[in-house]
Amino acid sequence: MARGPKKHLKRVTAPKHWMLDKLTSVFAPRPSTGPHKLRECLPLIIFLRNRLKYALTGDEVKKICMQRFIKIDGKVRTDITYPAGFMDVISVDKTGENFRLIYDTKGRFAVHRSPTFSLLARATNHGFPFLEERGSASPLLKRETRDWLPNRAVGEMLSL
What we know:
One of its GO terms (cellular component) is cytosolic small ribosomal subunit. By secondary structure, this protein is an alpha+beta fold.
């Protein structure tokens, strides 16, 4: 009988959109519990090591995260298996780079690099203010901005 949740993830059974090779090792980093499901996220260690090539090993990724250089949606994250998902903004303070995770045409995560993203977080029904993109009511596009301009109002229409 199994006792508790699964702690391991075999590399062969990892999601294909992570684009991990099969022969490097047996296991893949299992994402922590968080805002995105296992099949709909990209762990921070894969983002920094495999996509951006900022580190060669998992220990180097751990050192980068523990120095508090990485922010996801404006909050510092030190967990190397934190699940970053669709439309999340990942900021690297040391280099001043900002990345947004979006899907490409084949369903894989593509990293969209931009020097100036407004730091946006998920809007929920807890009363957070949000700006709607052209009046759409999609929950993926509703975001809360942290750097308010004084002439903006809550719920104001803003075309991005």
